[in-house]
């Protein structure tokens, strides 16, 4: 082989390695990073995606899953996707505020009465349009995955909104969620998911809001004396990738990944209700925390106290989007 050809080949292999492609087999190495444990709807959805993509596409792809914030916290994963350091992430819908204001709809308190209403909106016209709401920023949404409705927890019983006044709550990086806590005179503190357990344990914050699955799998219940079953908001995910990388894929690979992703979305969304019920029960059975159910009167008080947040964000989100979501109840 002439040296020049050798050099060109070596440069090609190096470039391919940088791009995550193994030149010897032309295998596409695809990284999927997320922040939760494997025994959660998102963790299971990611594993299912890997299994199906590798079954459908064989050696053409290798999917690597990095759970538990091993690679990136959610605020770092979207820039990492744009750089090509990782190909898929699935941040909670609360974490896209810097990229689009429209997805803030999902954080409005008491917007969805149950997960069927969430599915109705996500599968409907407006929900599907929102998958493309970041195309101008180079990100494409390829699916929604459920986690579930959020519960409030603290080291004192939160029965009515006034019980939360003055308490510090760890929140996801969402201005809507910050406004929601300010509406009940509490103090929101944005913080990475990976730091939440120790912030609760050391008393840096007094409480937090999350789904049963996250409260169970990250053991927040061990460091919170009370959980109020408030179901006051949603925590779901958008699986995202780089538009440039996705559009540049070999069409056969893109088709296989699309099929695997659609199947994984169905799988994760079908699993979340059972996992939520199981993990809620496991928290109750642990005996480590007291579960407070919310009477109809108190539920109305929480709703009234938090609802003004809707008006504050309707301009940014778009009233048409809010109306379409509310119509699913
Ligand atoms: C959180 O930060 O509480 C959640 O977004 C974590 C997750 O991915 O479910």
Automatic annotation (TrEMBL):
<dbReference type="Pfam" id="PF03480">
    <property type="entry name" value="DctP"/>
</dbReference>
<keyword id="KW-0732">Signal</keyword>
<dbReference type="InterPro" id="IPR004682">
    <property type="entry name" value="TRAP_DctP"/>
</dbReference>
<dbReference type="InterPro" id="IPR018389">
    <property type="entry name" value="DctP_fam"/>
</dbReference>
<keyword id="KW-0813">Transport</keyword>
<protein>
    <submittedName>
        <fullName>C4-dicarboxylate ABC transporter</fullName>
    </submittedName>
</protein>
<dbReference type="GO" id="GO:0015740">
    <property type="term" value="P:C4-dicarboxylate transport"/>
</dbReference>
<comment type="similarity">
    <text>Belongs to the bacterial solute-binding protein 7 family.</text>
</comment>
<dbReference type="GO" id="GO:0030288">
    <property type="term" value="C:outer membrane-bounded periplasmic space"/>
</dbReference>
<dbReference type="GO" id="GO:0055085">
    <property type="term" value="P:transmembrane transport"/>
</dbReference>
<feature type="signal peptide">
    <location>
        <begin position="1"/>
        <end position="26"/>
    </location>
</feature>
<dbReference type="InterPro" id="IPR038404">
    <property type="entry name" value="TRAP_DctP_sf"/>
</dbReference>
């Amino acid at each position: 082989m002439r040296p020049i050809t050798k050099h060109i080949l070596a440069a090609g292999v190096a470039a391919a390695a940088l791009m995550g492609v193994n030149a010897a087999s032309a295998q596409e190495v695809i990284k999927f990073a997320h922040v939760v444990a494997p025994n959660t709807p998102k963790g299971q959805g990611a594993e299912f995606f890997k299994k199906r993509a590798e079954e459908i596409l064989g050696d053409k792809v290798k999917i690597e899953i990095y759970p538990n914030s091993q690679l990136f916290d959610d605020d770092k994963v979207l820039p990492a996707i744009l750089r090509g350091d990782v190909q898929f992430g699935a941040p909670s819908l609360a974490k896209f505020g810097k990229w689009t204001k429209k997805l803030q709809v999902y954080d409005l308190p008491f917007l969805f009465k149950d997960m069927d209403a969430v599915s109705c909106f996500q599968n409907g016209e407006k929900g599907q349009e929102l998958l493309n709401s970041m195309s101008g920023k180079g990100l494409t949404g390829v699916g929604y995955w459920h986690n579930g409705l959020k519960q409030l927890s603290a080291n004192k019983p939160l029965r009515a909104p006034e019980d939360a006044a003055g308490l510090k709550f760890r929140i996801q990086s969402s201005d809507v969620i910050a406004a929601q806590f300010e509406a009940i005179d509490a103090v929101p503190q944005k913080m990475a998911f990976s730091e939440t357990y120790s912030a609760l344990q050391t008393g840096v914050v007094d409480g937090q809001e999350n789904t049963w699955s996250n409260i169970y799998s990250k053991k927040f219940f061990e460091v919170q004396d009370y959980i109020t079953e408030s179901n006051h908001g949603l925590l779901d995910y958008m699986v995202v990738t780089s538009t440039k990388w996705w559009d540049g894929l070999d069409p056969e690979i893109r088709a296989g990944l699309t099929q695997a992703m659609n199947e994984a979305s169905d799988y994760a969304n079908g699993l979340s209700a059972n996992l939520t019920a199981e993990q809620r029960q496991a928290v109750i059975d642990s005996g480590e925390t007291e579960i407070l159910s919310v009477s109809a009167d108190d539920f109305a008080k929480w709703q009234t106290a938090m609802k003004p947040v809707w008006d504050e964000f309707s301009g940014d989100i778009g009233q048409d989007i809010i109306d379409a979501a509310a119509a699913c109840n």
